[in-house]
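Changelog-adjacent note: as of this version, every example in the card shows the full chain rather than a window. The one below runs 188 residues end to end.
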Amino acid sequence: MADANTLSTTKTKPTPGMVLGPDGKPCKPCTAFRNWKPPGSGSKKAAAGAGAKSTAAMMAALASGQDAAPPADPRADCPADVEQLGRATWTFLHTTAAYYPDRPSQAQQSSMLGLINALPALYPCSDCASHLGGNMKEHPPDVSGRSAFSRWLCERHNDVNVRLGKDRFDCGKTDERWKDGPADGRCD
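Full-length structure tokens:
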């Protein structure tokens, strides 16, 4: 059996779509769930075994009188993938920007800069963190007030959207999306 040091330096060829972290190991928060499968695990035999286990578990639940319905999201208790982490992070950041003061104190501006500047150093997806860090060097954060910060954040998000081939968000609608809700009142 190899020791921990040997394992951490061993590099294997990743599954297509799997992103490796700086340590050379598969990076779950950098990779979409659909690409988490280790090499060779996508076989029909493995899928059949998983299906049989699922069926057996459902049959056992039925026999015991428990609800046998599968969970709404079978990955709900798995670590976040790159898509979940990204959505959650953008939701947090945009919502924070929407409630940031119009005239923030020096302490509030300093705290916001600390939060934003920590992302490239601490974000779990190293690839995402690196892109954000480079983008922030080109476009330093504007924490002078709620409107300016919301616009800056929306523009950074759109930079990511373009890089990922997604549509751009209309930055004139940040309050509608992240603070007030649509004019039709369906979020009230």
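Structural remarks: Helices lie at 4-9, 44-63, 82-98, 106-122, 126-138, 146-163, 174-180.
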